[in-house]
Design a protein that fits this description.
Elements: E1 2-4, H1 7-19, E2 24-29, H2 35-47, E3 50-55, H3 75-84, E4 89-91, H4 95-98, H5 124-139, E5 143-147, H6 151-163, E6 169-173, H7 193-199, H8 201-214, H9 220-232, E7 238-246, E8 260-270, E9 273-283
Parallel strand pairs: 1-4, 2-3, 2-5, 3-4, 5-6
Antiparallel strand pairs: 7-8, 8-9
Helix pairs in contact: 5-6, 8-9
Bound molecules: pantoate.
The site of pantoate (PAF) has 10 residues, from strand 2 and helix 5.
Length: about 290
């Protein structure tokens, strides 16, 4: 595994590989790697000739009140995990190379970025879209792998690629869960033992919502009411949203059309120190 830091080194490597007609698979990450990331890496390895993983905690996607300063980082451990997966390149760019002082261009997927998490995290998806476009330009991958845990992010990247005619295939990968159903996330480490127990309600509530749908309920309001009730029993700090949305436009639907996504964002914890977790399930007629 090669570790590359400079943009020039990364671009030169990719040019060489593409010139040989080989397929580059890319997994962008912010580090603090877990099984969810590793499942993306394994998909990339299976489907591509070479695999690149980037580790970059992107300041542009964090709001002023958010956890940029505390965001979990353990580069040594990440490198060990990636070495075991036998990837080709880990790309760890320096913030000042990605965002030089005179940097002033950003991209925004305007409509989709306003839905769901966009309502409480203004500017977040602008930061995500901008860094992903930059990384695509530097790494020049053939395929890029994104997890469906960040469903809205994946939909936004799909749109970005279509709207800007980017020459990269976005591959959506399934959510990886802990034994009790909690979706894997780098932010799970913030949870206390009690909060960790409570957080497992998210998947139980989503599964309950899906069962209601499977038994014929189509009114979003009914499904959402029961999902909220289950989550509320665990005394979270705050339910940011529980919504049923169209899987492409991410607009709320009052009747569940298929396929739709049932998505939640919930803050666990007390006082100022809360952890915001997101999760979702797709409701479709195949009984998924
Ligand atoms: O999902 C993430 O870890 C980040 O949002 C991404 C895609 C690496 C962009 O910083």
């Amino acid at each position: 595994m090669e570790a590359l830091q400079s943009l020039l080194e990364m671009k030169t490597w990719s040019q060489k590989i593409r010139a040989q007609g080989l397929i580059i698979g890319f997994v962008p990450t912010m580090g603090a790697l877990h099984e969810g990331h590793l499942s993306l890496v394994r998909q990339a390895k299976k489907n591509c000739d070479r695999t690149v993983v980037s580790i970059f905690v992107n300041p542009l996607q964090f709001g002023l009140e958010e956890d940029l300063d505390q965001y979990p980082q353990n580069l040594e451990h990440d490198f060990e995990l990636l070495k075991k997966e036998n990837i080709d390149v880990v790309f760890v760019p320096k913030p000042k190379e990605i965002y030089p002082l005179d940097f002033q261009t950003a991209v925004e997927v305007s409509g989709l970025s306003k839905q769901l998490c966009g309502k409480s995290r203004s500017g977040h998806f602008r930061g995500v879209a901008t860094v992903v476009l930059k990384l695509f330009n530097i790494v020049n991958p053939t395929k890029a792998f994104f997890g469906n845990k960040d469903f809205q992010q994946r939909v936004i990247i799909d749109r970005l690629v279509k709207d800007l005619h980017l020459d990269v295939e976005v591959v959506a990968c399934p959510i990886v869960r802990e034994a009790d159903g909690l979706a894997m996330s780098s932010r799970n480490v913030y949870l206390s033992i009690e909060e960790r127990k409570s957080a497992s309600v998210l998947y139980r509530a989503l599964q309950h919502g899906r069962r209601l749908f499977q038994s014929g309920e189509r009114r979003s309001s009914k499904i959402i009411a029961q999902v909220r009730e289950m989550i509320d029993k665990e005394n979270p700090k705050h339910i940011d949203y529980a919504q049923v949305c169209d899987v492409e436009t991410l607009e709320e639907v009052s009747e569940v059309q298929t396929p739709s996504v049932l998505a939640v964002a919930v803050h666990f914890g007390q006082g100022d120190k809360t952890t915001r977790l997101i999760d979702n399930v797709v409701l479709d007629s195949n009984g998924e």
